[in-house]
Design a protein that fits this description.
455 residues, alpha+beta, four-stranded mixed sheet, globular, Cyt_P450_sf, oxidoreductase
Length: 455
């Protein structure tokens, strides 16, 4: 063989050979330590029991102590890798190969076409559509007056004139009234009440073992989700007719906004009816429960932290001085409530509404020397990522901020309160945190409390 040809072959083959030898020497990533447990059930029941007993953080720490910050288990019907710590959060939230993955129970209840489940171009299309209504400053400014009116009506009907109230159910009703008005244009009506009942049952099975039997919370939630979906589909068709007749506009509510969006190239509707319904369900669930929990626990905290409460009162009384009696808050007023929002963020740190976050591996991944196989879930718990992070950060975070600031403005100016229960630090997760007995409080009405007649 010609020597020049031989040298050429060696020159080509040597790098390939060295690469193969290097890979052969490098140990392959292995599955994390731990056990998948029983089929389908896995460790789900243990986690749910710990959440209800308010020992979920201990449950997580016990796993970390036993296996380290990376371990495998099975949750809600899927093999899962549990990741704990700031480095794990960064890995999960900013890794394009780990899109959102709800537990199988939540996925079945919320639908397949929500932006929580979709990836790539479909996710960007739907998230962009939702952002048109939930993140644009010009649209956000329109919310403030509507939310102000709902808050004052609610406090006048359900708080004013009462000596005691139970905070959690009242906050859930307030945030539901706000979100159903903004999403669907619904005021108080039998249809709104039916949707509220469906939503309450939907939440019962969101983190349940996905066993579809008549006596299970999962079956009840499936039925409630189907009922809510029918209601929203009917609202969607009705809104479409109003748009065609000129009786509604793109800024009327979320449904009207989504129906009005079209593809820039074809002029066709940007979203299908199924996509509108599924993403409206997601927005309804997310916009209702998390905000009500935040405000409930702010009230609980302020009852025992009088210095912080006094500072908040001063901030809001200063804002009120510049306004006429009965004048609604504005976007500029909210920008002055910096201390109140810091209190809200600290409350979220102490009692995060969402215990953990699930992502799905779309390819084999490696973290800290361990393999996360394609298709497995990845769950980083117990970190201050109140609205998530990365490209899937909560699209409704500004709405939650507006709800919270407006509500606290009137609460701290109109009322004083103290807790009825001595065990004020007790709460359970099912799956979201709920204080003991729903947080009953004794109310004292300030001189500035208005008399509001329900319409």
């Amino acid at each position: 063989m010609d020597s020049s040809l031989l040298l050429a072959l060696v020159a080509v083959a040597l790098p390939v050979l060295l690469h193969v030898l290097k890979r052969a020497k490098k140990p392959r990533a292995k599955l994390p330590p731990g056990s998948l447990g029983l089929p389908l059930i896995g460790q789900s029941l243990g986690l749910l029991r710990a959440m209800r007993a308010n020992t979920a953080e201990r449950w997580i720490q016990d796993r970390v102590d036993r296996y380290g910050p990376v371990s495998k288990l099975s949750l809600f019907g899927g093999p899962t890798v549990l990741l704990a710590g700031p480095a794990a959060n960064k890995f999960v939230f900013f890794n394009g190969a780990l899109p959102m993955q709800q537990p199988l129970s939540a996925q079945r209840i919320l639908g397949d076409k929500s932006m929580l489940e979709l990836m790539g171009a479909d996710h960007r299309r739907i998230r962009g559509a939702m952002a048109e209504f939930l993140l644009k400053p010009d649209t956000l400014r329109l919310y403030v007056g509507k939310i102000d009116g709902e808050v004052r009506r609610h406090l006048g009907e359900s708080w004013a004139g009462r000596r005691t109230v139970t905070v959690m159910p009242l906050m859930k009703r307030l945030t539901f009234d706000i979100i159903s008005l903004l999403l669907f244009g619904l005021g108080r009506s039998p249809l709104q009440d039916a949707l509220a009942d469906d939503l309450a049952r939907v939440m019962e099975g969101m983190w349940a073992v996905p066993v579809n039997l008549p006596f299970t919370a999962f079956r009840r939630s499936l039925k409630a989700g189907a009922s809510a979906r029918r209601i929203i589909a009917g609202i969607t068709r009705e809104t479409k007719g109003k748009l065609e007749r000129g009786e509604a506009s793109r800024s009327s509510d979320l449904i009207a906004c989504l129906l009005s969006l079209t593809d820039d190239d074809t002029g066709a509707p940007l979203l299908s009816e199924e996509e509108i319904v599924d993403n409206s369900i997601v927005a309804l669930v997310a916009g209702h429960d998390t905000s009500s929990i935040l405000m409930t626990f702010m009230i609980r905290h302020l009852a025992g932290d009088l210095d912080t409460l006094a500072a908040m009162v001063r901030e809001h009384e200063e804002i009120a001085k510049s306004k006429d009696d009965g004048e609604a808050l504005t976007w500029d007023d909210l920008a002055k409530m910096k201390f109140t929002w810091r209190v809200a963020l600290e409350t979220l740190r102490l009692v995060p509404p969402i215990f953990g976050n699930f992502r799905r591996a779309t390819q084999d991944l490696e973290f800290d020397g361990y393999l996360i196989p394609k298709g497995w879930q990845s769950a980083p718990p117990c970190s201050f990522v109140a609205f998530g992070a990365g490209p899937r950060i909560c699209v409704g975070m500004e709405l939650a901020k507006i709800e919270t600031l407006v509500t606290m403005h009137y609460l701290v100016r109109w009322f004083r309160w103290k807790l009825c229960c001595k065990a004020e630090d007790t709460f359970a997760r099912d799956p979201m945190p709920s204080p003991l007995h729903g947080l009953p409080i004794e109310l004292e009405h300030k001189a500035s409390t208005p008399v509001i007649v329900a319409s």
